[in-house]
Amino acid sequence: MPAPDPDAPRTVAPTAGPGAAHPAAGTDPDTAAPPPHEPLDRAVFLRGVRAGVPFSVASGLVALSFGTLAVDVGFPVLAAIAMSAVVFAGSAQFATLTIVAGGGGLGAAVLAAVLVNSRFLPMGVALAPSLPGGPVARALQGQAVIDASWAMASRPDGSFDRSFLFGFTALQYATWVAGTALGAFGGNLLGDTDRFGFDAIFPTFFLVLLITELREGRGRGVAAAGALIALALIPFTPTGVPVLAASAAALVGLRRRGLPDPSGTQGDAS
How many structural domains comprise the chain? Predict the structure, then answer.
């Protein structure tokens, strides 16, 4: 057998890298396939907190208004604070107060809150593939979703950055509960909070997000479909139903994932 030529090129088996095949599960743990979801990133979490500062200021002011109104319509102070801590949904909480202030019963108030918050169903469907764990674990993580964090944490490919989402929501939660407590304990010192125009903050925020989405043809189609559905249902359905039906149109955006790209390769369907 001839001796090997030291100058001859050597063939090296590929190791870990973009083109390397992962060994089957249960083999060497040092070369096992990486987990499908990235661990929480502290730097990204803090970036989400910083990005949420302007919105948390507005959220805290609206929570201050909610705490004041809740006490005015007969809620005990601790009940108002507990509602913000457990429900953590401004639109649902204000809908509940509106019904209670108008003489409605508990059942009607709860139904209104459920309908208003039902928009989170399609949002949760879109978010679920970006969360690790089984159904229960994903459901628990999904409690961190609010409108703004869901929108700000979305990626161009349809996935979501959960570290950013958690950071963004954490600050909103703290300011929402704190603002409610301040309003419930001493909100009457502010007088009529409507004069500050807090109710215009949230529509303006989401209008900016909508303008961004309208740059793409798919976004314009989804927005138009949602608007037509809502406008058609508003005169005939209870509060919250038009929002739920219109938000279902956003599920069309999920078709971007798992469809073949122009080069003929299959997109990521995970």
Answer: 1
Helix boundaries (H) for 39-76: 42-51, 53-72
Q: How far apart are CA 93 and CA 97, in angstroms?
A: 6
Angle between helix axes 53-72 and 77-86 (nearest 10 degrees) is 140
| Distance separating alpha carbons of residues 173 and 157, to the nearest angstrom | 27
Beta bridge partners of 154: 160
CB 100 within 8 A of CB 90: no
Name the phi and psi angles at 22, rounded to 5.
Answer: -85, 140
Instruction: Report the pLDDT value the prediction gives residue 204, as an integer from 0 to 100.
Output: 66
Residues of the chain scoring pLDDT < 50: 1-2, 4, 6-35, 256-270
- Asked, for residue 19, whether it belongs to a domain, the answer is no
> Cα–Cα distance between 45 and 25 in angstroms, integer?
31
Tokens of 210: 């909508």
pLDDT digits (tens, 9 = 90+) for 112-126: 778 778 778 888 888
Is position 33 within any domain? no
Which pLDDT belongs to residue 226?
82
Residue 86's domain comprises 38-194
* Nearest partner of 160 among 169, 149, 171, judged by Cα: 149
Q: Is residue 32 assigned to a domain?
A: no
> How far is it, in rounded angstroms, from Cα 57 to Cα 73?
25
pTM of structure: 0.61
The answer to whether the beta carbons of residues 161 and 46 sit under 8 Å apart is no
Output the pLDDT for position 188: 64
Question: Considering the domain boundaries, does residue 53 fall inside one?
Answer: yes
CA–CA dist 171, 88 (Å, integer): 12
Does residue 152 contact residue 94 with C-beta atoms inside 8 Å?
A: no
* Residue 146 and residue 172 in contact, taking contact as beta carbons nearer than 8 Å: yes
